[in-house]
Amino acid sequence: MAGSEAAWQAAQAGVPVVLHEMRPKVGTFAHRTGNLAEMVCSNSFRSDDDENNAVGLLHWEMRAAGGLIISTADTHALPAGGALAVDREAFAEEITRRLRSHPLIEVVEDEIAALPGPDAGPVIIATGPLTSGALAEAIAAETGQQSLAFFDAIAPIVHFNSVDMDVAWMQSRYDKGETEEERTAYLNCPMTREQYDTFIDALLDAEKTEFRPGETAQYFDGCLPIEVMAERGRETLRHGPMKPVGLTNSHKPDEKACAVVQLRRDNALGTLYNIVGFQTKMKHGAQTRVFRMIPGLENARFARLGGIHRNTFINSPTLLDAQMRLRSKPHIRFAGQITGVEGYVESAAMGLLAGRMAAAEVQGRTLPQVPEDTAMGALLSHITGGADAKTFQPMNVNFGLFRPVEARGGRKGRKERYKIYTDRAKAAWREWLTSFEPQPATAD
């Protein structure tokens, strides 16, 4: 996400770009194709509410800046009840086509195993959560410390025609959405108390993926495996991804479910659905057995089972300056998840900034400081010094990263307070975007 967005932004500013991608020559555990910006863990960019949600505000800022990732996501959006979910295959295919066809972008399929020297000119490393071993070692050698790491888990995908619709029903939580398609965007599978308890027992007893010697599971709290959540308490899941609130079983409207498993459409055809929040490190045989215990999924066929992978990131507050440059080698910038932001949107946003910063450097221009009151500025400030380096962990965008707002006229409710945050951010972002004029793209 970050590399694709950075390349697009720099090229749109008139700077020639060479984009290196090791896939498909060198594969990873999680990726399936050689397409750029392939979505791995989920097909959702999360909330699209730009007035009351920090992620939605980040969407708005990226749209205002002509972001490639967000515009392509809008083109391939699927009904998701207020979230921005996409057909992941069509999305990645279009990103790949647009980048490969850009007159100022050359895509080279090779693996970069060492840090480029200053003669290479401005460089952006945006290798995402699965940085190759050789490059990770080169980064660690340069920074004089081991890169930090946590583990990311992948949710399974189910063929829709294998779901028992006499048990499951279509509904978004609280019927959220402006159209009927949005209000029925999720597939819901209800559980009684007995079914829920049996399911939790099976989750806890299932055989799990083993870690290599010396590895420790430092999970990111926003992407916990479902069995890890279950280990934190038997009620955790029914107050998390399996919460039954805001849902009414159309088959049995008078019965209140103890828990509900939701599935979200994964492609435009509606033939594939991913199980929301069901990232897992269970072995494949155990997944098939346990997930078929879910009412409505007894005969489920899986297009992909869940998995787990190592996710590498650097201690950005100690290593990067305010322009995301490596302090020891300032011709190198880092962008995306490797910097310690978490999520597709956050990664793409940091790529957008890195691409613009690098392009301005090539053209001898200096960009104004990104306003800290914007979503992008809040994230940038966090990873380049705002976070405590000793406890630095991957972070999603959230209003806790923003400067507090002044509650004039007395105490504000949460929605009113969030609206103040987003109004302030939009004004600051508009001013930043109009404070400089990027050079037009050219093939010369």
Automatic annotation (TrEMBL):
Q: Which SUPFAM superfamilies match?
A: FAD/NAD(P)-binding domain
Primary location group: cytoplasm
Alphabetically list the UniProt keywords. Answer: Cytoplasm, FAD, Flavoprotein, Methyltransferase, NAD, NADP, Transferase, tRNA processing
Uppermost EC category: transferase
Q: Which Pfam families match?
A: GIDA (PF01134)
Q: What is its EC number?
A: 2.1.1.74
The Gene Ontology CC terms held by the record are: cytosol
Q: One biological process GO term for this chain?
A: tRNA wobble uridine modification
Q: Where in the cell is it found?
A: Cytoplasm
Per its UniProt record, the required cofactor names are: FAD
Q: Which residues form the MnmG N-terminal domain?
A: 2-365
Recorded GO MF terms = flavin adenine dinucleotide binding; tRNA (uracil(54)-C5)-methyltransferase activity, 5,10-methylenetetrahydrofolate-dependent
Question: Which Gene3D superfamilies does the entry link to?
Answer: FAD/NAD(P)-binding domain
Q: Does the keyword Signal apply?
A: no
Q: Which family does it belong to?
A: Belongs to the MnmG family. TrmFO subfamily.
Q: What is the documented function of this protein?
A: NAD-binding protein involved in the addition of a carboxymethylaminomethyl (cmnm) group at the wobble position (U34) of certain tRNAs, forming tRNA-cmnm(5)s(2)U34.
Q: Which NCBIfam families match?
A: gid_trmFO, PRK05335.1
Q: What is this protein called?
A: Methylenetetrahydrofolate--tRNA-(uracil-5-)-methyltransferase TrmFO
**Could you read off the lineage of the organism from its UniProt record?**
Bacteria, Pseudomonadati, Pseudomonadota, Alphaproteobacteria, Rhodobacterales
